[in-house]
Amino acid sequence: MSLCICYTLLPGNVHEHFLMLKHMTDVDAKSLSEAILSSLQSLGLGTCTIIAQCYDGASVMSGRVNGVQAQIRESHKAAMYIHCYAHRLNLVIVAVAREVQYADEFFAIVELLYVFLARQKVHEVFMRFQQERGLSQREIGKLSDTRGACRYRNVLVIKEHFGVIVDVLWEV
Hints:
Elements: E1 2-10, E2 13-21, H1 29-42, E3 52-55, H2 59-62, H3 68-75, E4 80-83, H4 85-99, H5 101-118, H6 120-132, H7 148-160, H8 162-171
Parallel strand pairs: 3-4
Antiparallel strand pairs: 1-2
């Protein structure tokens, strides 16, 4: 979990700071909200007034009854929830890419490559070919509409290991 704060000291003078990364094994709303509040407490910010909270649109975060935002509001009544604009922008980009035929077809092929290369025997050949060529062993991951970075990573893996992927396709 990443924790960032946005605050103002003077009207119109807004500051935004990354505070910390916290490893989370449980990602339910109760665990996440407790981690947020305890992290703020440990940083000496436990008594600060929280007036807004910004997360992605996942129900565990945005849920009005049991989501993180609802649990934070129990102790910080003024903490209104805002759907993160970076996540919204990513969803817009994904939707636009689906409307561009070539982009949509390209990412459909990337998804098919992921499915094919994830099969156990094919995956073994893919890893072996990379090792035999002295390349760092990389994998194509599942595409996600909410994590744009996975699309970038997958395209990078395909670009860097294109020859290996072609050889695997011929081999199996």
